[in-house]
Automatic annotation (TrEMBL):
One of its GO terms (cellular component) is cytosol. It is an enzyme of class 1 (oxidoreductase). Belongs to the NAD-dependent glycerol-3-phosphate dehydrogenase family. GO terms for biological process: carbohydrate metabolic process; glycerol-3-phosphate metabolic process. Residues 34-175 form the Glycerol-3-phosphate dehydrogenase NAD-dependent C-terminal domain. PROSITE patterns: NAD_G3PDH. It comes from Volvox reticuliferus. It comes from the Eukaryota. SUPFAM superfamilies: 6-phosphogluconate dehydrogenase C-terminal domain-like. NCBIfam families: PRK00094.1-2 (NF000940). Keywords: Membrane, NAD, Oxidoreductase, Transmembrane, Transmembrane helix. This is glycerol-3-phosphate dehydrogenase (NAD(+)). GO terms for molecular function: glycerol-3-phosphate dehydrogenase (NAD+) activity.
């Protein structure tokens, strides 16, 4: 299998020209206009690769590595959304694709540094033995901590790696601290609001604000008619402003899939009982072309 890659110029016509120049039967290039997302994904994954290396060095195994990649991607996505990036970029080649490779590949310099740290070697000794090669995640860990604090984004994994690399913290103790934090939902409401805000979808923001905190959904309960009507009215207004909008609960399945792939913002507001959104799931994809 030959490798794909991504090209991120903001102008789509220029991106298409770069894509055509770089692509050939052995190298397939995809284009993106999300420069911020592509740049952040390419930088932040190096720190997470060090984390995965440390996990492997401590002997935690495949499950721990998979969890680190998953939750690390969530932290990367939160930072990217806070900086105005398209969250879908994080699930593409620049995000998940490069992340998995860097966190699992035996030739990854950043993972190798983490692996040796996990086995008890000193960072200075590791760097001295690398023959001039650079593990970008080492300095990037400082930049991530600064950026996260500036944006007010919680990144416990990234913060923990900074402590191990630059503060001399014990890796096993940092793992225990991260695992012992307050229990929370897998996806916090703030990232949903951030996705919607970046899409300038004021109708959905109003619906989300009016819904109040989510509650445990009742599986068999129908959505309150008035609330469902309010949500659909906001969605219809979005579609009226942009003819290329699509309601994800309507249309052919191919249209829905294509809409999701092209979307600038996908907001899924789901299900609570009573005064929240009931058992309704309303999804609106706004095409961006």
């Amino acid at each position: 299998m030959f490798p794909p890659s991504g090209a991120p110029p903001q102008d789509d016509q220029l991106a298409a020209r770069v894509q055509a120049l770089l692509s050939n039967p052995r190298f397939r290039c995809y284009r993106s206009t999300d420069v911020i997302g592509v740049e952040l994904a390419g930088a932040l994954k190096n720190v997470l690769a060090i984390a995965c290396g440390i996990s492997d060095g401590l002997g935690f195994g495949n499950n721990a590595r998979a969890a680190l990649i998953t939750r690390g991607l969530y932290e990367i996505t939160k930072l990217a959304v806070a900086r105005g990036a398209n969250p879908l970029t994080m699930s593409g080649l620049a995000g998940m694709g490069d992340l998995v490779l860097t966190c699992t590949g035996d030739l990854s310099r950043n993972r190798t540094v983490g692996l040796r740290l996990g086995r008890g070697e000193r960072l200075q000794d590791i760097q001295a033995s690398m023959g001039g090669a650079v593990a970008e995640g080492v300095p990037t860990a400082v930049a991530i901590r600064t950026l996260a604090r500036k944006l007010g984004v919680e990144c416990p994994i990234m913060q923990g790696i900074h402590r191990v690399i630059h503060e001399g913290a014990n890796a096993q103790e940092v793992v225990t601290e991260v695992m012992s934090r307050e229990l929370k939902p897998e996806v916090a409401p703030d990232i949903i609001k951030g996705v919607i805000a970046n899409g300038s979808n004021t109708n959905l923001m109003e619906v989300l604000a009016a819904a109040g905190p989510p509650q445990t959904p009742a599986v068999a309960e129908a959505p309150p008619p008035a609330l469902k009507a309010t949500a659909l009215e906001g969605a219809a207004a979005t579609a009226a402003r942009n003819p290329r909008s699509i309601l994800c609960d309507g249309g052919r399945s191919g249209e829905r899939e294509d809409g999701a792939m092209r979307t600038a913002t996908v907001a899924v507001l789901a299900a609570g009982a009573g005064a929240a959104l009931g058992a309704a799931v309303v999804a609106v994809s706004r095409w961006r072309r």
